[in-house]
Design a protein that fits this description.
Elements: H1 9-25, E1 41-46, H2 62-71, E2 76-78, E3 89-91, E4 94-99, E5 105-110, H3 124-136, H4 143-146, H5 149-152, E6 153-160, E7 163-168, H6 175-180, E8 216-224, E9 227-235, E10 251-256, H7 260-268, E11 274-276, H8 281-288, E12 294-298, E13 303-308, H9 318-327, H10 330-337, E14 342-344, H11 368-377, E15 386-393, H12 401-413, E16 418-425, H13 427-436, E17 441-446, H14 454-457, H15 472-482, H16 487-504, E18 507-513, E19 515-519, E20 523-524, E21 540-541
Parallel strand pairs: 1-10, 1-11, 15-16, 15-17
Antiparallel strand pairs: 2-3, 4-5, 5-7, 6-7, 8-9, 9-10, 11-19, 12-19, 13-17, 13-18, 14-18, 20-21
């Protein structure tokens, strides 16, 4: 007998049996859960700020480069999370490249279909324009002088609509590192006049920089009384790989805080999703024990050192400089100020990098016998102490700088023949004092332009630190090292430079640091690698 619909009872029973079996299998086979929904906005907190400009032709500070990296593009970039080795450079605005047998010609094939904000298609003329402009606008404190583009690049030639060649003056091994750094960013000629730097324009974020082609566009840059308050980044609809899901988060708001305490409190209150630069070491320890905060730790190539103004006696005499170097107690600052989160450094080249030595160990730590002996030669003793003005900055540009200064003061004075007066200034004033060459002894730091010893060794004599040290023999060895492809020879040359540096002591290496960030527990995509770059386009937060 059939049902009213014409389906037999046997068929109905069979259908029900299938349903029961499928339902039963559901206990064993489940569909994957839906992908977590990501928030459209992340708030990123920091104590840092832009030092001068967001123009790649003259920006030469950590935070300025950080913003440029988000809103600009380079021919190549470093693979996130890598060691920035020779095989870790990946395509960005170039799709591939080749180098001639003599290592003097680098040819890049460019990505096609990439659009500037105004719809203009990116091509080889924009690469040439960007490099000709940046090298033409070079200033003493800028990256082209600091990195010494002029000793590396001879010319940039357009070989075709989508092909460009760099003719080098020397066979420079780290050339891809230079191409990946923010000073090599491609600018939009519409916003980048050939003969003028682009500076901050109040109320007009677009007119305040010449960058384009990055994952984000800058929609807000707010300053109050010359201090950065907020940056707003919005996903660039014209980004060439937007279809690949980049950036992960549509909007990033960057808020500046007055100090590390204010930044930590903002994170704990939920006012920011991510905190980076600079939480104090004790904050890192405290936050690591909380369940509602995630602390991120990564390798770092950041270093810090003490500089001497050699125009001011007695620091025109290397004996005075070596005396202070011998009195430094690196272990004390690393353990008491940084709670073991930094490592003592005895070379301008970081540990783990080719060419690193322990050369400054020859002067010792808290080696007061040597300190007293050297200063005695200059007429200083317990009844006639060397008076030192030690300067540090107060804006959070460097971590725990005031606490560091106290330890260095104690180290110097423990010699019995030195008395220290601590002096401080905010970062803008500190730079002005540096340029005016009025600070006898001052704390400074370095984050790499590219990860190669070539980008550290020049710190001994670079003009933009204004310490007025010059050693032609050192520079000659450096030039020889950067133009050779022989790794063993390079290390030998760097070692010779380090030996000279210990004798002349134009600076004192202090410590090498790790990188730390803290976030809400549902934030992901934070990559802290040896480049020291913070790639905001990788950030995401689940709802």
């Amino acid at each position: 007998m059939s049902t009213a619909k014409g389906i037999s009872r046997t068929t109905i029973v069979a259908i029900l049996a299938v349903i029961i079996v499928v339902a039963g299998l559901g206990w064993y086979f489940t569909l994957p859960p839906p992908a977590p929904k990501l928030k459209d906005m992340i708030i990123w907190g920091t104590t840092d700020s832009v030092e001068k400009t967001l123009d790649p032709a003259q920006a030469y500070d950590f935070f300025g480069w950080c913003i440029i990296q988000q809103i600009g593009g380079t021919l190549v970039e470093v693979r996130p999370g890598s060691g920035a080795g020779p095989n870790d450079y990946v395509p960005d605005l170039a799709t591939d490249w080749s180098v001639s047998a003599d290592k003097l010609t680098w040819t890049f094939n460019l990505r096609q279909g990439v659009k500037f904000e105004d719809g203009t298609e990116f091509n080889a003329t924009h690469v040439k324009y960007s490099f000709d402009r940046s090298m033409g606008l070079a200033i003493e404190e800028g990256p082209q002088v600091g990195i010494d583009y002029y000793s590396i690049i001879d010319s940039v030639e357009v070989k075709g609509t989508y092909q460009v060649a760099f003719q080098l003056k020397i066979p420079f091994g780290p050339f891809l590192g230079v191409m990946a750094c923010q000073a090599s960013g491609i600018v939009n000629p519409k916003y980048a006049p050939m003969d003028a730097e682009v500076d901050y324009v109040d109320g007009d974020a677009r007119a305040s920089h010449p960058n384009d082609l990055g994952r984000y566009t800058l929609t807000k840059w707010q300053r109050v009384a010359g201090k950065d308050v907020e940056f707003d980044l919005e996903a660039n609809p014209n980004y060439w790989n937007a279809s690949g899901g980049w950036p992960k988060t549509k909007n990033i708001i960057i808020k500046m805080y007055s100090d590390a305490t204010a930044l930590r409190l903002a994170l704990e209150a939920g006012d920011v999703d991510v905190a980076f630069r600079h939480l104090t070491p004790s904050d890192i320890v405290s936050l690591s024990g909380k369940t509602d905060v995630k602390v991120w730790e990564g390798v770092g190539a950041q270093i810090q050192y003490i500089l001497f103004q050699e125009k001011i006696a007695p620091f025109n005499d290397p004996r005075a400089r070596r005396a202070l170097a011998a009195a430094v107690n690196r272990t004390a600052v690393c353990q008491t100020v940084f709670l073991g989160q930094k490592q003592p450094l005895y070379s301008i080249i970081p540990m783990g990098m080719a060419g690193h030595t322990e050369a400054f160990k020859a002067l010792g730590d808290a080696n007061y016998t040597l300190t007293r002996s050297l200063l005695a030669e200059l007429g200083y003793n317990e009844s006639h102490k060397l008076e030192v003005d030690l300067w540090y900055e107060t804006s959070g540009h460097y971590p725990s700088c005031a606490d560091q200064a106290l330890v260095y003061k104690a180290s110097f004075e423990a010699s019995g023949v030195i008395t220290v007066t601590l002096k401080s200034a905010d970062w803008a004033s500190y730079r002005a004092n540096r340029n005016a060459e009025i600070m006898p002894v001052y704390i400074y730091g370095w984050y790499p332009d590219y990860n190669d010893p070539d980008d550290y060794v020049f710190l001994y004599w670079t003009p933009w630190t204004h310490q007025n040290y010059n050693n032609p023999a050192m520079v000659a060895l450096y030039d020889q090292a950067r133009s050779t492809a022989d790794a063993t020879q390079k290390s030998t040359l760097y070692s010779q430079i380090e030996t000279m540096a210990v004798q002349d002591c134009p600076l004192v290496p202090l410590w090498q640091g790790k990188a730390f960030a803290a976030s809400k527990p549902n934030v992901g995509g934070i990559v802290l690698d040896v480049t020291e770059n913070f790639r905001l386009w990788l950030l995401y937060e689940t709802e």
